[in-house]
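#onboarding

Welcome to the new folks! Below is a worked example of what a typical request in this channel looks like: someone posts a single protein sequence, and someone else replies with the predicted structure as tokens. Don't worry about understanding the tokens yet, we'll cover that in week two.

Example request:
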Amino acid sequence: MTTNTILLLLLSLLIAGGLSFFQYYYKAKTKSKVSLVLAFLRFLSIFGLLLLLINPIMSRKTLETIKTPLPIVVDNSSSIVDLKAKEMALELYKKLSANKELQEKFEVQSYRFDSEFQQSDEFDFKGTQTNLDEVAKSLKSIYKNTVFPTVLITDGNQTSGNDYVYSFDANNKIYPLIVSDTTTFLDLKVTQLNVNKYAFHKNKFPVEVFLNYSGNKNITADFRISQGNSVLAKQSISFSSSKKTAIVNVLLPADKVGLQVFKATISSKEKEKNSYNNTKNFAVEIIDQKTNVAIISAINHPDIGALKRAIESNAQRKVTVIKPNSINSLQDYNVLILYQPTNEFKSFFEKNKVAGINTFIVTGNNTDFNFLNQQQPNLVFKMSGQKEDYLAEFNSQFNLFAMDDIGFENFPPLQNPFGTITTNGNVSTLLSSKIRNINTNAPLLAFAENQGKRSAFLLGENVWKWRLQSHIDHQSFEKFDVFVDKIIQFLASNDSKKSLVVNHESFYNSGEAIEILASYFNKNYEFDEKARLTISVTNTKTKQAKNYDLLKGNNSFKVNLDGLSAGSYNFTVKELISKTSYSSHFEILDFDIEKQFVNPDVQKLNQLASQTQGKVYFPDQVDSLIKTLLEDENYKALQKEISTKTPLIDWVWLLVLIAIILAAEWFLRKYNGML
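Example response:
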């Protein structure tokens, strides 16, 4: 307390005592023991009120010692077990965390990490992923603006996250304590495999495989890709101390429809410590996209042959050329190309109103535009009898499907009657038309979608010249044929709006996140937040079923199926109110990324230590590590003076006490007839 506060307290005592004496002794006619008690009570109440006004505060200064934090971070991934280093890691952790001298100098704190980082002094070494980058981010977040060392007990093998070498703060020393045997063992490994998730039936799909060799001997390894008992590709690869890697490119046939699982394997006659990483499973969804296309024409024209060759360049397409009056049934076709329709096409249009097959209309000098106006609502034609040449101008804003400019503006003009063409409704233009250098603001190639039915319009004949010009420009028909194939693909796909849309992969690797997303829409095709979605997952081999609820997220519902074992699964997503359901399947491939290693990554950990001015240590050097930490003068404990101010009294209780004293004084005065 300050001197002023003490003086005020003394003054309060004098005032309280003086007032009590004046009232109960100086002015009192008679003096008794009751008067003495009343005077004392009055003294207490007045002094209490004055205390409330003064509110004396006690100040106290203390010294607090702040130690430098020492995080001991232990790799909790299963690779520690696979490298037979579990007991070693636990022993090293106990020796460091229990060291009395380290505890005196540092604030020792224990953490563990696998795919996540968390504070813990217990380790089970069951993590399925290793993310050292997450360790760096978490330490930066926990110890902001603090200089501290870190002991990292790990094998250095990271399976997810960014490169951790430069993730850690360069101002804070990292001391990697490397567990596992650092002896280099002979090891063949399928490091990485690149393949598209989907391929078309009866085509070939590429597979790119990266192989790695650890060892100093010259060896010859056999690489093969198999499916079941069938070997689809095989070749011999030589490795040596100077040739440690190889890249293999293979084309595999897509001769079976559906999800196909393959196995890539590298092996040799040499004995290996870890043969698990010699194999990598992969899967490809083979899609049967066979499309039957009918070209309907009443005339002969070179365009028909050019379109037929371009479409059939894709093995999944088959084209039939027929006359308009010889059509019996449209059910055998997926896309109809109407070449220069006239009144002869009337019966065809009537049949297609029932069949609802998507159409590609090509016009020209023989087209009956008045008839065409009656048969479709998307384009309105007002044409003359005069012929005109129309050049193409590419629309880069077109977004119905991905399409590159293959040099359309350099192509010869298409011929069509002169006139005006206006669009009506939902029409997207890929190519607009020009007469010489004057833009007509009319489409040359346009696409429309009306009530789920798709249409395409090419407004001009002589497209065979485009195919020829494309070959001259690129020494191949490929670019033009792909252009036509994308038009057919758009027309062959007729995805109607569904109330329940489910997104999932056809296969997952074990250990990866297995997420299935679903969206449910009401009759106005608006996302329904009140939907109740469940999923039933059944293992096709064991027939064991599990049920889960899908949790609402951002404009979707999600379920996480982590923990399922490798195998094939059927599943059904159901909306409980409307009973709408979606069924499909997926496969979990047997792949444990933590079993891919036979050695710790000493090189990477050395880079990390060098980057942070730390040093790499091995298990037999743990005493040297402790000595380094203890002798480092950069990490000294700091003494911090803390000043605390606390009120001498609690005003609430003082008020209660004053009320009790005044009540007691009143009661005594009343009882003794002094009121």
